[in-house]
Amino acid sequence: TRVDYLKLDNVQVVYNGMILVLRGVSMRVPCGKIVTLLGANGAGKTTTLKAISNLLAAERGALSGGSIHFEGRRVDDLGPEALVRSGLIQVMEGRRCFPHLTIEENLLTGAHTRSARRSELNAGLEKIFHYFPRLKVKRRLSAGYASGGEQQMCAIGRALMSNPRMVLLDEPSMGLAPQIVQEIFAIVRDLNQRERVTFLIAEQNATLALDCADFGYVIENGRVVMDGTAQTLKDSSEVREFYLGIG
Ligand code: ATP
């Protein structure tokens, strides 16, 4: 297990050339682990994920300092597409599926960075249907008619079609009932254990995220204010008070 599989050192991000939103974020994601990034709305979780996946430009954001390494290679100057080809992909907040495409067609769009044969694509689909049986049942349904939970599963499945070694999930629980979030996190753990996919999960729902993750970071105002094993964070009085709602 390499502790510096994904490594952020003193990452700073500005929007519109002036507003400093990340003020020096350093974090490590070990290979084969699940790490969660916790923080309130606006703390900088989405910005951190977009900095990693090189998706800031569309938001008029940019790295203004620091470095990001993935598998020992500096990646903060790689384009998002090249990053996907090199094994790292982000599932954006808000489970963006193409509403007019079926679930299966949505999944297939996730393979566009691979030059895969139809038989390989079918094998990829079958693997995703194995982990997400609900998607198999709904494979012919337009994604726009699927439930929120199914759309989130579809968004994760679509990312998996690129054959990633690492997946960034932005707020997978958003707008979903706790029961379906638990189901999704159980599948994430399964993918982590059996397919060795490394995950970084930005979450406001600290309770569910810490049950799923091995390690966590807490971000406030663009800075990491705490980190530790999931258990350490669950036991911490600050985390309990501010993020778990337990006094
Ligand atoms: P959320 O739960 O809303 O996703 P977050 O922790 O992910 O919250 P970010 O979305 O990273 O937080 O936002 C961090 C800060 O950057 C916030 O103050 C936000 O207003 C600001 N911000 C985000 N996107 C932009 C942008 N495109 N231009 C200017 N400021 C932005």
UniProtKB/TrEMBL annotation:
Please verify whether the record's keywords include ATP-binding.
yes
InterPro entries, per this entry?
AAA+_ATPase, ABC_transporter-like_ATP-bd, BCAA_Transport_ATP-bd_LivF, P-loop_NTPase
Q: Which residues form the ABC transporter domain?
A: 6-246
Q: Name one Pfam family in it.
A: ABC_tran
Q: Which domain of life is it from?
A: Bacteria
Q: Which CDD domains does the annotation name? A: ABC_TM1139_LivF_branched (cd03224)
Q: Which UniProt keywords apply?
A: Amino-acid transport, ATP-binding, Nucleotide-binding, Transport
* Any single biological process term in GO: L-amino acid transport
Molecular function terms from GO: ATP binding; ATP hydrolysis activity; branched-chain amino acid transmembrane transporter activity
Q: Which SUPFAM superfamilies match?
A: P-loop containing nucleoside triphosphate hydrolases (SSF52540)
Q: Transit peptide as a keyword?
A: no
Q: Can you tell me which family this protein belongs to?
A: Belongs to the ABC transporter superfamily.
Q: What does this protein do?
A: Involved in beta-(1-->2)glucan export. Transmembrane domains (TMD) form a pore in the inner membrane and the ATP-binding domain (NBD) is responsible for energy generation.
| Protein's UniProt name | Branched-chain amino acid ABC transporter ATP-binding protein
